[in-house]
Batch of 2 targets.
Target 1
Amino acid sequence: MTGASRLPLMWLAQRIGMMLLTLLAIITLTFALMHAVPGGPFVSEKMLAPEIEAALNAKFGLDQPIWRQYLNYLGGVLTFDLGPSFKYPGVSVNSMIADGLAVTAQTGLLAMICVVAVGVPAGIVAALNRGRWPDTLAMFLASLGIAVPSYVIATVALYIFALRLGWTPAFGLDDWRGYILPVVALSGFWMSFVARLTRSNLLETMSQDYIMTARAKGLPARTVMLRHGLRNSLIPVVTVLGPVVANLLTGSFVIEQIFALPGIGRHFVQSITNRDYTAIMGITIFYAVFLMLMILIVDLLYLWLDPRISYGDRK
Amino acid sequence: MTAPLLSLRDLRTEYRTDRGVVQAVRGVELTLHRGEILGLVGESGSGKSVTCMSLLKLLKRGGHITSGTADFDGVDLLSLSDRALTRVRGDRIGVIFQDPMSALNPTMTVGRQIVEVLMQHRRIGKNAARARAVELFKLVRIPSPETRIDNYPHEFSGGMRQRVMIAIALACEPDILIADEPTTALDVTIQRQILALLKELRDRLGMAIILVTHDLGVIAETADRVMVLYGGQVMEEAPVADLFAAPQHPYTRGLLAAIPDPRLAGRPLSPVRGSPPDMRSPPPGCPFAPRCPRAMRICATPPPMYDGTESARLRPTQRSRCWLADTNAPAPTPEPAE
C-alpha cells in the first residue's frame, strides 16, 4: 500500500485552514441569528425585578455592545472555553456537552456499530441472493426502516417491549436492556439506508467488466464478490458513513426525549427555548467541528479505498 | 489433421430479457486446432462474442445455454458445473476483453491481479508467483516490469493495460486464448502492436487463439482461418486467404465490398444495406435473406451448411450456409459492377 506516501500534507493543511474559516462563519452566523431572535436568557413569564435582570446581564456581559460580546466569545472559543451556561448556574457549557455526550455517545456508538455491522452485511446477503427470499426480506425490512419515522418505531417498540411484554425498561440506561430500544430506534433508518446502498452498489459493481475478468480467471464466485466486488462498492457507503457518525453521536432530540435520556440532543433543543446563548453556541460549534472532522476522515479513507484518488496535485 | 483441440457442436444460447427472449446463438459449430488462430467475424449482435463466452459460461445476467456440446480435450465444457468450470477458466482457457480500461480492477495493483490467477491454479507461493508475474510482464514486453508490477491500472496507457490483460490470460499457459475484440478500444498503431504480440506469443507458446472481431482487417492480418457469423449462425468458414480471394456467401461478399479501398477514394462506400434481424424473432430461413441482393424464394427455408465435399462450387476447406452453394442453384451471376 502506498497510502502513506500519497498522504498530502499540503492538502491537509489547506483543508484544516478551510475548516477553521468555515467554523468562523458558522460562529458568526449563529451568533447573529441568535441575537436576532427576540427574547433573552433572563426574560421569562415570571418577570424578574429590573435590577436583578440588569445585574444578571452585567454578570454575563450582556450589557456590553454586541461586537464586544462577539469578540469576548471568540476569545473564549480560542481557549476552548465555551463559557458558563446562562440558565443553569454554576454549570459550564463545556461540562454540559461532556455530560450530554457521555450519554449520547454510548447509544450513538452502539447505533453506529449496528449500522455498519448489520446494514453492510444485510446489503451483501441481499445482493448475493438477488431476487430470492433473503433479498426480498432484507429489502422489505429496509424499506420499512426508511419509511417509518424513528419516533414511530420508538413509540411502538416502547409500547410492545417495555409496556406490554416488560422485557425492557421504559426509560433510562441503568441496565443493558435499557440500551436496546433506543439503539434500535436510532439506528433503524441508517441501518436500512446503508443496507440498500450496499446492495445497489454491490450489484452495480458486479456488472462491471473487471468482475467478468475475475470470473474468467477461474476465481470462485464468492472470491469474485468479496475480493473484487465489495471494496469497489463500499466507496459510496463510506461517503455516507461520515455524516452518519456525526449525526448519531450528537444525538437525536426526539429519541432522547422518548426514552428520557439526558443526552446532548435534548440539551440543544432546551437551550434554544431557554435562549441559553452560550449553550446554543457551544453545542452548534461542537456539532460543526465533529461533522467537519468526520468528513475529513472520510476523505482520507478514500485514499486508502481508491488508489485513483489523489489530493496532491490539486491546484 | 490431428484431432481438434476444441469441437463445439450445435451451440444455442439465449438471453431472457424484459422484452422477450433473444436468440443470440442458433446452432453454431466450431472446430479449433492446436496452435491455430481462428477469427470470428460479424457485426454487433451476430453472436460472435456470445459464442466464445458460452464456452466458459461467462454469460451476462439472463443468458442461458439451451443446447450444445463443447468437446475440449475429451471433456464437454457445456456440461461442467460452475465449480468445475473454475478449474478451466484462467488455467486452460484464458480470456482477454475488449476494453482494457474497464477490464482491470481499478483498486488492485496489476501485480496482485496476476498473482491471484497464478495462486488460484498453481501450487505456488506468493514470492514465486510474483517472480512469475515479472516474467510474464517481460513476455508481453512491458518496460521495467519489476517496478510496474506494483502500479495500479490507471497508471498504464490503454495499450499497456491490454498487455497486462494478455499477461493475466497467459499466466497459466492456457491451451486456448479467447480474445474478444482485443484491439477495438485501442488506436490503430497500438492495435497493430497488440496483434503482432498475440501472433508472436502463439508462435512461442503454441496456444490456439479464438479472435473475435468486427474488423476484417484484423482478421486478414492475424487469423489462419475465419468464420463469418450473422444472426447467430455461421454463414461461411474458410482459410483466411480463401475467404478474401473467393468469398462464397453473399454476406461475406457484402462485408468485403464494404471495406473502403484507398484506390477508390472519393467514390461512395458500399455498405451492406438494411439492418440486422431482430433476434427475438429471427427470420425462419436464412437470416441474411431480407438484406441479400441475391435472395431467392428458397431462402425462406433454412439453408444447410455446405462444405467442399458436397458442393463443387466450394473449395475443399470452405463451408458456406447458402443455397447458392447447392449444385442445383442457378449459375453465379457476375459480380455487381460496384
Target 2
Amino acid sequence: MRFLILGSGICLCGVLLFSCGAEESPIQEGPTLISLEKPDYFPAEQPMPAANPLTEEGVRLGRMLFYEKKLSKDGTISCASCHQQEKGFSDGLRVSPGVGGAQGTMNAMSLANLHWQTRFFWNGRSVTLEEQAIIPIEDPMEMNLPIQEAISRLQNDSDYPKLFSAAFGTEEVTAERIGKALAQFERTLISANSKFDRWIRGEVELTPEEQLGLELFFTHPEPSIQLRGGNCGDCHLGFLTAGDPNGFSGFHNNGLDPDERLKSGLQSVTGNAFDRGKFKAPGLRNIALTAPYMHDGRFSSLEEVLDHYNDHIQNSETLDVLILEASNEPQNPNDPVKLHLSEQEKKAIIAFLNTLTDQEFVTNPKFSNPFK
Amino acid sequence: MKNIAYLFLAFVLIFSSCSEEEIPAQMTVELNFENTLNGKPLQLNSETFTLPSGEPFIAKKLKYYISNVVLTDTQSGAIYNVPNSYHLLGEDFKSTVELGMIPSANYDQITFSIGVDAEANAKTDQTGDLDPNNDMAWNWNSGYKFVVLEGEFTHKTTGERTGLVLHIGRNQNYKTVTQSLTGIRAGRAAQIQLKTVVDQLFLSPNALNASELPSTTIMGGELADKIGENYANGFITIE
C-alpha cells in the first residue's frame, strides 16, 4: 500500500488485448513506473534519480536481492541479516557479525524514509543509495563476496536473469543494476504511520507527557528567556527526525569521546580536520526498536542515550556547537557541558521517542522476506 | 523605377529591424546572493575568518529568509510584487532566487524583507521554502527562525573554544530593506547580484563584542532584537 501501482492495470489490459488478438508475440513492455506514496508533510522537492526511476519490477528484484543470502561468500547472510524488519531494519546488536565470524566495527543503521537522505554510512562515504547498497556485499567484515562473483552467481541462477530483464530490459546482471534494484526497494521503505504521524495528521492526541517530550525534542534551550529544550531537533530535523541532507550538515560530533579517543568519522571522507569525530545523525523513526544506539552501539537503552546527552557530554575540538552551547541552566564559561533536563523531562522525551514506532511498517508484508 | 523599388526594400528592412527591437512584454530576473565575511566569500568549517570584534571564528551554518520581493521602476511607476515570495538562502544551501518571467520594466529599485511576514510566521504547515522540514521552523508553536548563524570562536578572556548560536526570529525582527538597482533594461534578462555581509550582524547600529556577550546563544530577547536592528542595516546589499 506504500506505493501506487500506476499503470499496472493498463499494462495488464494491453497484454490481454494482445493475447486475444493476433498470434504475434506481445510487444515487449518496459518496466512499470510507480511512485512513492508519501505523506504530504514529508519534503516535497525530492525527485527520483533520473538514472534509476522507481519501477514495480525493480522494487520486486531489489526486495529479493535484499533477502538473498547468495550475495554473501558462504551463503549465510543477506542485507536483511543486519537489517531486520521487526527491528526497524536494524539487528539489535552492538556491532554486526559478517561471514566467517568476522566482527564489524559499526552498529547496523536502521532503514526508513531513505529517499530523503543523502550521504550514507555513519561516515558518509556513499553519496547515493545506489552506490551504498553494493558496498556491504564486498566488505570483508560483512558479506565478503567479490562483486564479480556476486554477478556470476546471479547470472547463472535460474530465476534472476529474467528478473533483471523485467527490471532493466536485458538479462545482463551488473553491479550497477544490483545497486539500482536494492536502492529502489529501500526507497519504498517509508515509515509514516507511527503515532507521531497520526498526530501530525490530526488523527490522535498525544498524552501530556508525549506532548511535553515533543516540545522538548524540537526546542533548543535558552535559559535567558526561560525556554526549556532537549536539543534533539537541532540535528534530527523536522518530521523525518533525520539529519540535514544538505552537504555535510547532517554530520555531528555528539560528545561521545574526548579528543584523544575521537574516531575519524566524516574526516575520513572529507579530509577536513574539523570533521573529526563527526558521524551521521540518523533518522529516529522506530528508534525504540533499534537499540543499541550510536555508531558503535555503545548505549543499550534510550535511558542511557538521554543520560549521555544530559550529563556525560565529552568536550572536544569538534564537539557540535549546538551541544556545546545547549543548557537549560545559565552556564559559566568553564562549566562542563550539561543539558540540565529534569528526570521528568528525560522521561517525557523518551515517551515522545516511543511515538515514532510504526507497527505497520515493521509488519508490512511488502517489506518482508519474499523467500518465506 | 528600379530606384524606387530599392527605396521600398530599404524602407521595409528598416521598418522590420525597428520592429525587432520592440521590447518584449516579459523578462527573466534572477537574484544571486553571495555570502561574505571579512570581505571574502564565506566558507563553512574553515579557519580563515575573524569576527568583527577580533576573535578567530569558524562558521558552521548560515541560513536566512528573504521574503516579499518587490521590483519598482520609479520612472514609470511600474511595480512588480513577486507572488508567494519566501526564499530560504544560505551557505552550502541555495544562493539563487529565480523570479521567472515577469513584466518588463526598467526596474531601478528592489525592496525585500529579511525574515517572513507575520501572516506566514503564524503557521508552519506550509510548503516550498517555508516547509518546516527545512530546519528553520522554530517548533510547532512559534513560527520561523529568520536568520541563523552558528559557529565557534576563541573567547578573548577564557581562551576557550566557544559556540556562537544566533537564531533570530519573531515578528519584530522582520525587517524591510530598499535598495537601488542599476543596469536593468526592460525586456532583457537580468541578474541582480546581492552580497550578504555576515560582519554586519555584529556591527551597527549595535556593535557586539562576542567575548563580552552575556550569552553566546541568542535566540530571543533584547540581544536578538539588536541583531535584528543590525541586519536591517547593510546585511544584504546590492553589489
